[in-house]
Amino acid sequence: MSLGKNVKHLRALADIALEPLAEALGLERAAGRQKIYALEKRESKKSDIASDLARYFGFPVERLLSEDLTSLTKEEWLAIRSAYYQSNPPKSGQNTGQIEQSTAPSRTDHSRTELGRTEALQRVQAAGNSLGLSAVEIAKAANVDQRVAERWLRGEGDPPTLEQAVALQNKFGINAVWLTKGKGDPGVTVRFTDEFQPIPITNWKAIPVVGMAQLGDNGYWADLEYPVGHGEGFVTFPTNDPDAYALRCEGDSMRPRIKAGEFVVVEPNHEIEPGDEVLVKSIDGRVMVKEFLYRRAGRTHLISTNDAHPPVAFTDDEIEKMHYLAGIAKRAMWRPD
Questions:
Q1: Which residue of 34, 62, 169, 327 has the fewest CB atoms within a 10 Å radius of its CB?
Q2: For a pLDDT cut of 70, what percent of the chain falls above it?
């Protein structure tokens, strides 16, 4: 039987990933991960870390190297491991991995090891006892059999799943993350027991579509403005700017941010800050939708929302207007005049 197959099976029983296992063996995480991975893939019959792996999983190294352990169940493995550690207690200063450390609550996340499983059960037991919960109450809240809840209160069996922990949190205020992972405080800081009352979006207005932005050369947009009073319908959009207007977009230079047939809603009275998307019209008639970076020494620096187009910079006298882009309206939001 190969060592690699045994290690892979035992790692699955311990529910531990490659990097945490490497760290538990005293190896550098990345290099150790590759070493254990290669051991499992090539199904080796020997390795320079075989003794460390044997100690970690609780087996005499001879058994790990020679026997077929792939038929072991988790319960059988736990029994063998327990007997091994009773007969082979760790020596002072010996690196035997996280499984052999104290079963006291840990400051780190051992949820992928057997130690993490034990600690999770200890937290369930402690929470239940401190709150004076009965097995009946716990079973009802977590939707499990009463016998399962009784084992939890004794620190036995499999710990609650995340779904069950969240159910206990909702019922008793026990922090589900602390219960399953040991992180944070036992009590939930905020409990959402109040009625959900979303803040409504108000100030919906009919924004006139005053022109069309058509894809031009070099990723620019050529503005085709309509005469005042001869627009192309309107789009409904929430805004506080009385002078807000919209442009219908055609072409693909702004994909995936803006698709052909969609509308950009522009607020000319909105203050512009770095990181805002803006509609810029240059003196020579080009119209661009860009992201405003900064203005320095009389030059405005912009980048494109489409990575295919390079950054651009304009002097103050090259810009006819630069307005804040409030949002994108889908085609379904358009209405005729």
A1: 62
A2: 76
Enclosing domain of residue 41 = 3-94
Domain count for the chain: 3
CA distance 141 to 242: 54
Q: Which residue has the tokens 């910079």?
A: 313
pTM of the model: 0.41
In the structure encoding, which two tokens stand for residue 71, read together? 């038929």
Per-residue pLDDT at 92 exceeds 50: no
CATH number of the domain where residue 318 is located: 2.10.109.10
Q: Domain check: are 229 and 283 in the same one? A: yes
Do residues 120 and 180 lie in contact, with contact meaning Cβ atoms separated by under 8 Å? yes
Mark whether 312 and 234 lie in a shared domain: yes
Amino acid 269 reads N
Q: Which residues, listed in sequence order, are joined to residue 281 by a DSSP beta bridge?
A: 287, 321
The Cα angle at residue 229 between residues 226 and 234, in degrees rounded to 5: 80
| Two tokens, residue 202 | 């108000």
